Every structure is written in structure tokens, then in C-alpha cells.
Amino acid sequence: MIEAKDPKYVTMCEEIFGPVLTVYVYPAGSFEKTLELVDNTSPYALTGSVIATDRSAVELATNKLRNAAGNFYINDKPTGAVVGQQPFGGARGSGTNDKAGSILNLYRWLSPRTIKETFNPPVDYKYPFMQEK
Amino acid sequence: MQYGNFSYPLPANEPVLSYGPGSAEKKRLKEVLSELKSQQPDIPMYIGSKEVRTKRKVAIHPPHERKHVLGYFNAGDEKHVQQAIEAALAARESWSALSWENRAGIFLKAADLLATKYRPYLNGTTMLGQSKNAFQAEIDAACELIDFLRFNVHFLSEIYSQQPVSGPGMHNRLEYRPLEGFILAVTPFNFTAIGGNLPTSAAMCGNVVVWKCANTQVYSANMFMQILKEAGIPDGVINLIYVDGPTIGRVCFNHRDFAGVHFTGSTGVFNNMWETIGKNMGNYRSYPRIVGETGGKDFVIAHRSADPDVVATALLRGAFEFQGQKCSAASRAYIPSNIAEAVKKKLVEGVKSFKMGTVEDFTNFVNAVIDEKSFDKISEYISAAKKTRKRKYGLVENVIKKKVILSSLQ
Predict the structure, then answer these.
(1) What percent of chain B has pLDDT over 70?
(2) Which of A63, B153, B190, B251 is least crowded, fewest Cβ atoms below 10 Å from its Cβ?
(3) Any chain B CB within 8 A of the CB of A91?
(4) Coil, strand, or helix at residue B109?
């Protein structure tokens, strides 16, 4: 665990893919400003959590962080997505957000063919509007 | 010929077994772990109907017990990529023509085989090969993969039923064709379920697949391939090969019949893939589908109204389960000053209490990181942070450092 005094310290920004957690302590009154920091600190947008009992704080975070995560958690950890319950994936540097294990993903592996079958095909090219000046 | 619109209702999620004290599943899993450790399979590549072995045998070690050999896999080269593509394309006509209920049946059977007799085997190979504890393996290799297979069958049947309206004197319909060519699935070490899902989701739609798993996941990927074979997947529909990424890319992305890539891994690799595909655009029969899930720098932000215990627990689980090697792992936390001391205290206590070691000792919460390369990369970040300590940044505790080092040196 690392406590960073600089919210843009390298371990706050780069993916390490290991058991390293970096903590930044912000002034309790600067929640909204800190949400901007959360949104702008890394190139990724996969998962994230807000933990609060104040409903307006939950709402503010949900709105401000709309594009900061493809899987957004309220009062929970950001891991443990379940198939069919929390379709998983993110945008920005985190991928194409095609949500593996959801219906959205399967569309990517299909190429629809539209078929129209007419039962009583016309036999004259002229349309009714052409019958008077 | 289909004489009915068969239904595949929304399944329920596979229940997670607890592996609690004295449970039957725990006893069985322990038996299977010893059985697996007593063997050293010579794991082939699966190309068409052939099990392909080469002269390049690569030993597989548990990340937490480097001296032990779990088996060997047969590394391939460029010609195996070509053979896998040829085998896939040869299987395409009959596979894409097979009725939906018979395609669906294969994946539903695979899910049931995995839920029953193969459950401890796919969990066991995941535990030993990827250093996951029993619970982490259960929610990944068993439950998530079973869910992927069953839910995708349901979702695909929903897609097939989405049809346009028809005006008077006509009938309109949509058929959802598989793509014209082969799909490349490139899968990561961290989830056995993703390894299984990326090739099967595309194959289920009637596509044929070349599957390249991470070298560090071959052990469990091989087990899943055996499940698919037993479930009746025809030869050539999914071809599993162990060839380095650049070689795979060179062959697949230059092939006229390359129809798409289903990827999970690093952002850098995915960007390279996209660029290479872009450069080769003129060579393809169709515009390839590029689908990828890459990295994350996942956050937890606590508000001043948050309960410190809730924050600390979310972080301890979210950041350290499976050694933080989930794409979704919490790795940056923003804690308000009013609860910072309480949260830090809980975090330090929590980390100090983590028990770490092999996966066979079920009391361990933390196991090893996947390999030496990963260990070195993590260590560099930690050393750099330590060096800055006296200047600008501070380390809360050194506890984790010792734990990480222990885990990979054993």
C-alpha cells in the first residue's frame, strides 16, 4: 500500500496488475473537485466505486463519473461482476466495451442478412400517379 | 430441418459452492489437486482432428511453487498458425450449416459437464496453474464459465428471434449469419472463464476459431478443451495453439479470411493489433470485427459520509484478491480526510492479517503473482515508491512488499 501525496503520482495513474493499492487522502470538503480528479487521472475507464451514505453524493458521483467506468459500483468493491447481472467492459483505454457474456457481445460475431420475399410481384412498371397530367 | 421454435429461457446463475469445513466439494477438490500434482501431462495443441506435439516442450510450474512441474505444453510456430487457420476454414461449411439446437446442445452440455464431474478439474488446474485460491477459482473457472456458456445460448436464441415486420404481400426476415472467415481469440492468464468465453461465444454463432491462450493459462485451457471435445464440438471449430503473439499476428492479420479478433489483454498489444489490421485493410474479404477488453486503473472514491469499515473492506477485497490481477481490481483510492485515519488503520490491520502461501492450504487469502516478469514489474513500482518516501511521498506500510516477495520466491 502506498499513500500518495501527489494525486498524479505514477501508481495513481498506471496499471500495475498486482497487489498494489495507492491511496490519496483529499480534503473532506472537496468531493466534487476530487471526482474530476478521478475522471482525469488515468487513460482507462473500466471499473470504479463510490462509497457514501449521502444520496446526493451518490448522485453527483454517478453523473460526474459517467464516462470514467464501464462498470460502476455504489457501496461495493469494483470487482466480482457476474454474468447476466453486471455485463462487463469499459471504454476509453479499456477496450471496445462490447460487454463479454452479454447480448451486445454476440452481435459482433454475426452478420445479418435481410431477406424480403414478395408474394404477388407487380407486372407493370407504371405507377398510378402517372395516369394523368 | 427444424420443426419447432425451440426455447432457451433465461438461466439462473450457477450457485457458488462454499468449500466450507467438512464439505463434500472441499474433500473432492483436495483429492483432485493431489491427483493433478501426481501427473505431468504432455499437453498438445488441438488443430483440426489432431493433437499436435512438437520438440519444444515448455514446463508448467505453479506460480507459488516454482520447483514443481505440473506438465509440459508443446509450443508451436508459424506453420501451426497456418494449419490452425486451414483446419478452421475446413470446418466452417459444416459447422455453420449445423442447426442451432445442435450447436446450442454442445455448449449446454459443456456447461453441465463443467458443473459436475469436471468442476474440480477446471478449478484445480486453475488453482495450480494460475495460483488462485479455491474460492477465486470457483467463481471464475466453474461459475463464470458455466454462466457464459448458458447465458450466451439464451442471448443468441433471443437474437435469432428478433425479426423485422412485414408489410402486406410480403414476408421479411433476418438471418444472423456467422462471419465469412475465421475468428482469432487471444485470451489472458487471469480468468479461465475469459479463456473459455472468447472462443466459444464466437463459435456458438456458427463461426470457426483459432484460439491462442496465454502461455501461463495453458494448463487450465487444455482442461477446458477436453470438456469441449467431450461435449461434442466438431474438430476444427476451435483450434487451440501455443504460439507467440507476434507470430500469430503476422499470420492471422495477413490472411484474406481473417474475420475478427476477440481479445482480452493489455492495451499496448490491442493497439498494435488494431494498427496491423488497419494497415492490411485492403487484403481482407470483409471488414474484420475488432473486439477487445484491455486494462484498467480502477478507482474507489469514498465520500465523507462513508462508513470507514465499508471502505476498508471494499479495498481489501477489491485490491488484493487474486493478488490484484483482475482487470477490475481497485488500485487507486480517494479517501476523505475526515475518515482517513480510521480507513488507514483498518487497511493496515487487514493487510497484516492476510495469510499468504500455496493454494493447497485453504486458509490462505493471498497466493502468488503469475510469473517472474510480473513480479519484477510490481517490485519496480514498489522500489520506486520507497525511494520517494523521504522526499514527497510516503509509504503507509511495508507489509505488502514482504508478502509479494515471499510469494514469488518460493
Answers:
(1) 94
(2) A63
(3) no
(4) helix
C-alpha cell at A104: 451486445
Q: Which residues contact A66 (CB under 8 A, 6 or more apart)?
A: none
State the ipTM, two decimals: 0.95
CA–CA gap between residue B388 and residue B394 (Å, rounded): 7
Strand A47-51 to B298-302 pairing: parallel
Out of B293, B321, B380, B397, the active site residue is B293
Q: Would you call A105 and B291 a contact, using CB atoms and an 8 Å cutoff?
A: yes
- Supply the mean pLDDT for chain A: 97
A35 neighbourhood in chain B, CB within 8 Å: 301
Q: How far apart are CA B389 and CA B410, in angstroms?
A: 28
pLDDT tens track for B180-227: 999 999 999 999 999 999 999 999 999 999 999 999 999 999 999 999
User: Which residue intervals of B265-307 are DSSP H helices?
Assistant: 267-279
- For an interface test with B, the pick among A83, A107, A108, A115 (most B C-beta atoms closer than 10 Å) comes out as A83
pTM: 0.95
> Catalytic site residue B213?
no
Judge: A101–B320 Cβ closer than 8 Å, yes or no: no
**A71 in contact with chain B, both atoms CB, cutoff 8 A:** yes
Cα B302 to Cα A21, B62, B329: the distances in Å are 15, 37, 16
